[in-house]
Amino acid sequence: MAGDDAPETGDDAPETGDVTVVVLAGGRSVRFGSDKLAAPLAGTTVLDHLLAALPGSWRVVAVGEPRATGREVAWTREDPPGGGPLAGVAAGVAVVRTGLVAVVAGDMPYAAPALVALAATLDAAPPGIHAAVGTDDEGVANPLLAVYRAAAVRDALPHPAHGRPAKTLLALAHVAVPVPGAASRDVDTPRDLEDLTP
């Protein structure tokens, strides 16, 4: 079951080489018509499908209203709530203590393997590269399917981050990594979910 407490925010030095994943789980699901993260997919839910596929060694920080999940998750929330995805990233990154932070939208159920590849790409990149960002089948970069150097993304975040576009993060020096097919797709509508259902 999910933990309801936000992770501790002590002043320990980052654990370089490790990865924490920040999952954005606070959207309103307006286009879907109901809670899309709880929608059934392949015997589980959209959110749990993503969580279950993430590497077991990665700590997971989810940003949103706490809910039960099949994997242990530390929950946090942007203050005030409802500030958009960049505010969610800011809230999640604020409690990350690893050198790398993966960022993913909770409605991307097949994104886990892409995040692993992005982390490996960034880990092998020179210090001047601060992110590995996934691009979809049309070549569009998605800042919510990316792995960042945590210190760099903290420096790049505007204050406040509420209401600011997530693509602000693309100003960081980054490597674009093609992520074809379902791994780069999210669930915005019931038709999207149908298309992603095996």
TrEMBL record:
Residues 21-169 form the MobA-like NTP transferase domain. SUPFAM superfamilies: Nucleotide-diphospho-sugar transferases. This is MobA-like NTP transferase domain-containing protein. Signal peptide: none annotated. Keywords: Transferase. Pfam families: NTP_transf_3. InterPro entries: MobA-like_NTP_Trfase, Nucleotide-diphossugar_trans. PANTHER family: MOLYBDENUM COFACTOR GUANYLYLTRANSFERASE.
